Amino acid sequence: MPEYSPEREDTQLSNQSRASFGGAHASIDGGNQPQTPSKPASAAPTTFAGVSKAKVTEWRSEYGDDRVKLLSVPIGSERQQFIVRGPSKGEYDRYLSEVAKSDRNFDRVNVATRNLFASCLLAPDIDTIRAIWERYPALTNTMTEPVMTMAGTDLEVREETF
């Protein structure tokens, strides 16, 4: 699907208004060309991950605009939507503690990562996400990356001079 562009819409509308008359496109020589059927405009979605815009606004007020992310991942021919928030200091500390206790046991690290994600998941319910993880186990890390980013893992630290 092409991206929305106001300029493109204006051009399309002006071309249609110049060329259409009486339900058919009139040519310069007076002949009629069949009108191409237009695709009905799709209605704007009223929910994301099963949640209303009002609820998302409420979460953004509670956690901060930059601490709530609306995300999706391709699952088959669909996109699974999910909403996460950034972890609190306590949640992140608990994650680090679980990883430290893992003694390089990857199953324990994976459980710690899933627990962090689950604590930050706002929508949909965790059972929906667990079903996805069963089918696509590597998505645990991929889906948790935005949570880690909100925890500050991607912030740039620079050496400064004074």
Description:
12% of the residues are buried. Residues 1-29 have low confidence and may be disordered. The strands form 3 sheets. A 3-stranded antiparallel β-sheet has the order 1-2-3. Helix 3 packs antiparallel against helix 4 and helix 4 packs across helix 6. It contains 6 helices and 8 strands, in the order H-E-E-E-E-E-H-E-E-H-H-E-H-H. The chain folds into 2 domains: 1-33, no CATH class; 47-151, 2-Layer Sandwich (rbstp2171), CATH 3.30.2220. It has helices at 6-19, 53-63, 89-101, 106-120, 126-135, 139-151, and strands at residues 20-21, 24-26, 32-33, 47-48, 51-52, 68-75, 78-85, 121-123. The protein is globular, with a radius of gyration of 24 Å. Helix content is 47%, strand content 19%. By secondary structure, the protein is an alpha+beta fold.
Quote the distance from N terminus to C terminus.
51 Å
CATH architecture of the largest domain: 2-Layer Sandwich
Provide the CATH superfamily of the largest domain: rbstp2171
- Which class of the largest domain in CATH terms? Alpha Beta
What is the helix/strand order? HEEEEEHEEHHEHH
Tell me the strand percentage band: 15-25%
How are the strands of the biggest sheet laid out side by side? 1-2-3
Give the proportion of residues in helices. Answer: 40-55%
InterPro entries: DUF6848 (IPR049294)
Biased composition (Polar residues): 30-39
Organism: Deinococcus ruber
Protein name: DUF6848 domain-containing protein
